[in-house]
Amino acid sequence: MGSTRRSFVKQSAEAVALLAVAPLGCSRVGPVKAPMGEEAMAWEPGYLALARSGELAARAEQLWEVLASCQLCPRRCGANRLAGEVGVCSLTARLKVHSAGPHFGEEPPLVGRWGSGTIFFSNCNLLCCFCQNWEINHRGDGTFLGIDALADMMLALQERGCHNINLVTPTHVVPHVVRAVIRAIPRGLRLPLVYNTGGYDNPEVVALLDGIVDIYLPDFKYQDGEVAAKFSAGARDYPEVAAEVIREMHRQVGVLAVDERGIARRGLIIRHLVLPNNLSGTDRFVRWVAAELGPGTAVNIMSQYRPEHRAPGMPELARRLTHEEWRQALAWAREAGLTNLVS
Ligand code: SF4
C-alpha cells in the first residue's frame, strides 16, 4: 500500500474529524466531484435490490436484535448492548466513529483516482497487541454519532467522488451500518460497501450480509490458534473462524471484479500481514488460499509490520521483518501458485 492506514489516520486527523463531527461540512476540506461514466452510472450495488424487495429492512431488524444479547462476533459475549452493557469490544449500542475521508493508501482497485471512502469505527472485537491504530481500536478514541450522521457521512464521501464506502473494523457495528445504508439510499447512496474486517466475524452474521456487501476485505492474520490467543486477546479459534467466514465471503461475491477503469465493484481481497518469525503462518496461509479458494484469489501480502502498542515489549514481535523474511513470504506465495497479488 502506498501509505499505511496509520499514517493516513495521523496525517489527515484534523480534516477527517470534520467529516466525523459534521459530515455535511466537508466543504471545509475541499469537496471534489468525480466524473461518472455511463457504465459506472448503470451499475448498482447489491443493497439497492434488497432495499426494493424489503429484504434490507428485514435484515437490519434481525441484526439490531442481536445487540440485545450480543453475538455479533465469535466472542459471543451475550452483553445487552441495547441496555448499556458492554462486551470485549467495550461498546454499547451507541455508535462511535473516529474519522472518515478519502484514503489513497488502500489497494489500487479500491483507490482508483478519487480514493476509497474510508470510515474508521472506534473500538474493535479482536484487539491485537500489535495494533497499528490502538488509539482508535483499543482506547476507543472517537465521537458518538447517530445513525443519520453515519448516513450523512457515507453520502459526503460519495459526494467527494470516492469509489466505495470502506467500513474499517465494522464487525461490532454491523447493525448500525445497515440502518445507515437504509437511511442513505433514498438520498442517493449508490457506492459499493467494502467490509474491511480483521477476519474475526460470526459466520451467521456474515451470512446476513449476503447481497448487502459487494466487496469483502478481510484479514487472515494467523494460522495457529495458540498464536492467535496470545496476540489477539485470547481468540484461540481465530484460524478456524477466519477460514469459515472467508469461505462464506468468497461464496457470496466470488473473485475480484473491476470495472472499465480498474475500480473494484465486487469480490474478495484477502489481506495478510507477514509477522516476524512467521507468527502469521504465511506458508500455510498461501497454500490454504490456493487450495480452498483458487490461485486467482486477490491477496495482499503485506510487509509493513512494525512494533506498535504492546509489541515492543514482546520479544517475538519487537522488530520489523527482515529482508529475508519478506523474500521468503513472496517465495511461498509463488510456490503456492497465487497469481493475483495486489499491493
Ligand atoms: S461485538 Fe463486542 S459485545 Fe458483541 S460479541 Fe463481539 S466483542 Fe462481544
Task: Summarize the structure in short.
By secondary structure, this protein is an alpha/beta fold. The chain contains 14 helices and 9 strands.
In the CATH scheme, the class would be Alpha Beta
**By helix and strand content, what is the structural category?**
alpha/beta
Number of helices: 14
General shape: globular
Q: Provide the gyration radius in Å.
A: 19 Å
Oligomer classification: single chain
Query: How many strands?
Result: 9
Q: Mind describing the biggest β-sheet?
A: 9 strands, mixed
Task: State the CATH topology.
Answer: TIM Barrel
CATH architecture: Alpha-Beta Barrel
Low-confidence stretches: 10-18, 20-35
CATH superfamily: Aldolase class I
Mean pLDDT: 91
Ions, cofactors, ligands: which are bound? iron/sulfur cluster
Question: Which helices and strands appear, and what pairs or packs with what?
Answer:
Blueprint: H1 5-11, H2 13-21, H3 38-42, H4 46-53, H5 55-66, E1 95-103, H6 108-111, E2 116-121, H7 134-137, E3 143-145, H8 147-159, E4 165-168, H9 174-184, E5 193-197, H10 203-208, E6 215-218, H11 225-231, H12 238-253, E7 257-258, E8 264-273, H13 282-292, E9 298-302, H14 323-336
Parallel strand pairs: 2-4, 4-5, 5-6, 6-8, 8-9
Antiparallel strand pairs: 1-2, 1-3, 7-8
Structure write-up:
Helix 13 (282-292) runs parallel beside helix 14. The chain has helices at 5-11, 13-21, 38-42, 46-53, 55-66, 108-111, 134-137, 147-159, 174-184, 203-208, 225-231, 238-253, 282-292, 323-336; strands at 95-103, 116-121, 143-145, 165-168, 193-197, 215-218, 257-258, 264-273, 298-302. It has one domain: Aldolase class I (TIM Barrel), CATH 3.20.20.70. Strands 1, 2, 3, 4, 5, 6, 7, 8 and 9 form a 9-stranded mixed sheet that branches. It starts with a helix and ends in a 7-residue tail after the last helix. With 343 residues, the protein is of the alpha/beta class. The site of iron/sulfur cluster (SF4) has 13 residues, from loops.
